[in-house]
UniProtKB/TrEMBL annotation:
It comes from Streptomyces spectabilis. SUPFAM superfamilies: Acyl-CoA N-acyltransferases (Nat). It comes from the Bacteria. This is GNAT family N-acetyltransferase. Residues 12-162 form the N-acetyltransferase domain. PROSITE patterns: GNAT (PS51186). It holds the Pfam family Acetyltransf_7. The keyword ATP-binding does not apply.
Amino acid sequence: MTDKITPSGPQAAIRPATAADVPAVREITHAAYHHYIERIGRVPAPMESDHAQNVAAGRVHVAEDAGGVVVGLVVVHAYDDHLYLDNIAVHPDAKGSGLGRRLLEFVEEHARGLGLPEIRLYTNAMMWENQKIYPRFGYEFVERRVEGIYDRFHYRKALVADAP
């Protein structure tokens, strides 16, 4: 990031990513996950994603700070019965600003807008910080599963339907 990040928090503008955002998506993902490489002994899956393809498919939404700088993102996949949260990343310079909470709220709004009853996600077992974060936001632990080279904790959040 070349510009200083302005606090984002609940006021962050979240919009669908465009092709012009791909470098920022790549940079933020790298910055948010790079420190895990040593801990888990391999590059985290989000760092190996095809960011351009995800953007082109409409799966990526980015959050901009007050100065219009992209500082966070989510990658989501809609299925018939749930919204899968593939990646949530906040640039380390924006950590503690409330942006992560705002992005999770956006994912819920997006799922509800699509009429989906739940959100699913997983996190690497070695990313223990996430095992504390997701339950605080209403996600329940489903199972721990080893998938190939990845040891993952799976979570889900059932969305309560809005009253008519």
